[in-house]
Amino acid sequence: MIDAPLTGTRPAVVQERRPGRLAGLFHRSESLRGYTMLSPTMLVMAVGILAPFIILLAMSFWTRQGFEFDTTPTFANYARAMSEPIFGAFLARSFWVSGIATVATVLLCYPMAYYVAFHVHRNKMLWIVLMTLPFWTSYLLRVFAWKVILGYEGVINSALLSMGLIDAPLEFLLYSQTAVIITLAHAWAAFAILPLYVSLEKIDRSLLEAATDLGDGPAWRFLRVTLPLSMPGVIAAVFLIFIPTTGDFITPALLGGPDGAMIGNLIQLQFGAVNNWPMGAALSIVLMLWIATVALVFLLVTRKAQERLA
Amino acid sequence: MTSTDAFIAIREVEKFYGSFQAIANVSMDIRHGEFFSLLGASGCGKTTLLRMLAGFESASSGEICIDGQPMSEVPPYLRPVNMVFQNYAIFPHLNVRDNIAYGLRRLRLPRSKRHEMVEEILDLVKLPGYGDRRANELSGGQRQRVALARALILRPKVLLLDEPLGALDKQLREQMQVELRRLQRSVGITFVFVTHDQEEALTLSDRIAVMAGGRVLQVDTPSRLYEAPRSREVANFIGTMNFLGARVVSRANGHLRLDIEALGQLDLPAGGTPLSEGDRTCVAIRPEKITLHKDRPGGDAPALSGTLEMTTYLGERSHFHVRVPGCDNSFSVSAQNNTIQGGEGQASGRPVWLTWRDDALFVLGKD
């Protein structure tokens, strides 16, 4: 009973809590906690994105043998993608169409986001919700809506005909690249408005006043302060629109006609009617590499431009 | 003051936000090369007035002239003024050099000349070699210097400062006060400084405009504002002041015969006050101009007797609150601690007598 005087001095209820070794590590290590929080997402990413990607990558080195696959690794699909001009042409057209659509969307959405960020003082959220309202309907429905508007007997043509401004329906409206660009620009507008709005909203108003105070009129102030500070939003908007629209196949299939078909349609054909999955996989990989390249170039160019303007 | 030495002339300026009057008929002159402060509690219109000088707000009526030029039609980016913002408004996407050189764009200088000017001004604000730092790598005091340099490099006719020291801690604030003063002297630019801190205004300014409720109460030098405030509001805002209610009995030869509460009838110089017989007013005296006696003083000088209510020990000096019969408020008395015996005989409740030099008591304007 040597311990007796010692234990006597200490209240019996206060028992030292001994956390397990793991729990202790968990509390001390911030990165461990971070990874724990990330892990559900990482799991989904690994299973849902990485695994299919690896399969796609592997498949792109196979070849079709009737209805079977020849799994001997070969670059034949890639060689074909590079040698046959149709693939290059479709790829170039995809970049062209989605590039124009991206630029148009960002240019059209920037003023809207700017207006809400700087000139709307009450019910901002309502404005944002109203702007995203069209996106509460399905993508397919919106594509068909544009078909109704742009068609031979659609809203625009019949209006122009009845007013006597044209004698025959305008053919370039539907089943053309124009139709695809218009539809894509409209369909993806919400993805531009939101990041643009967020980046503009964050800009401290006193910075704009400081620029004015230092001698910049509205135009210079926009170029030297507002635009550079909203660049993260612009870049996010460009990526959010450019990347998915390049591979889009629904809009070009429904509205593109012969001139409007894009690389997505070609890839879809490989997995569908043509039934050449390895070729489709190879085209997908090629498309992805090109998108990554274009994105990188875009990032570098904007960074350089920002430095120049400063 | 004649209007010839008015470098900034503010003439009958009013500003309404809807039906709310932010600035009520303000007229004043600011001289060339002066360190001028707008002092007042928050919401008194001082920042609005400063922003009118900068051009961010337009006057509802009246005119502001800077160096003889009417400003109402001049947009802020063409005005010969620059501003140091309350939060400094350093451009986060630019480094220190580009921040400071921001306003030089219009001068179309070669790059080397621009850099030379930036280095020069960085030396002036004591930040040599900081050109390549990014805005987020600067401390509060450094950001403030960058903001100052960015405005000063353009050699404005007037530099506007919107509570630039508010965000700094006490020690840094005092250091920056000294430097601001030094800087203003060395560049010789007219400074218009907005603050709610009376001590800061007194330390820095050549002249101060005390503002309240959109009006300018008094424009004067720091010592005149402290020694001879013209109204109770000003006297209350700058330092501590004791007031005694009074009524004018008669006025003759520049002197007023006053009936003062607790003191009886007394003659005081009228000063510039527009008081006449029968007016109700106040007389005032600063706490440090009162002498505290433990025993009834001799002589026939006016004295007040009262009881000591509370003693506050403040290190170099002590503060006493004395209740005087016939007065609504207790008297504040301040004394250096070399004149009193610390702790001894300062018990509350004991009778004390208050005396002062003849010129310490003065009369304020109409209530």
Strand and helix layout:
The complex is a heterodimer of chains A (310) and B (367).
Chain A: H1 4-9, H2 21-28, H3 30-59, E1 63-65, E2 68-70, H4 76-83, H5 85-119, H6 124-132, H7 139-150, H8 155-162, H9 177-187, H10 189-201, H11 205-213, H12 218-246, H13 250-260, H14 263-271, H15 277-309
Antiparallel strand pairs in A: 1-2
Helix pairs in contact in A: 5-9, 5-10, 5-12, 7-13, 9-13, 10-12, 11-12, 12-15, 14-15
Chain B: E1 8-17, E2 20-30, E3 35-39, H1 46-54, E4 61-66, E5 69-70, E6 81-84, H2 96-100, H3 111-124, H4 140-152, E7 158-162, H5 170-187, E8 190-195, H6 198-204, E9 207-212, E10 215-220, H7 222-227, H8 232-237, E11 242-252, E12 255-260, E13 264-269, E14 280-285, E15 290-293, E16 304-313, E17 317-323, E18 331-336, E19 351-356, E20 362-363
Parallel strand pairs in B: 3-8, 3-9, 6-7, 7-8
Antiparallel strand pairs in B: 1-2, 1-4, 4-5, 9-10, 11-12, 11-14, 12-13, 14-20, 15-19, 16-17, 16-19, 17-18
Overview of the structural elements:
Chain A: The chain crosses the membrane at residues 42-62, 95-118, 125-152, 172-200, 221-243, 279-301. Chain A: It is found in: Cell membrane. The complex is a heterodimer of chains A (310) and B (367). Chain A is mainly alpha-helical and 310 residues long. Chain A has a single domain (86-309), classed as MetI-like (MetI-like fold, Orthogonal Bundle), CATH 1.10.3720.10. In chain A, 75% of the residues lie in helices and 2% in strands. Chain A has helices at residues 4-9, 21-28, 30-59, 76-83, 85-119, 124-132, 139-150, 155-162, 177-187, 189-201, 205-213, 218-246, 250-260, 263-271, 277-309; strands spanning 63-65, 68-70. A two-stranded antiparallel ribbon of chain A has the order 1-2. In chain A, α5 (85-119) packs across α9 (177-187) and α9 (177-187) runs antiparallel to α13. In chain A, 29% of the residues are buried. The model of chain A is unreliable at 1-12 (pLDDT under 50). Chain B has 367 residues and is an alpha+beta fold. Chain B is 21% helix and 34% strand. Chain B has 8 helices and 20 strands. In chain B, the strands form 4 sheets. Chain B has a 6-stranded mixed sheet, sandwiched between helices. The interface between A and B is medium-sized, with 20 and 25 residues.
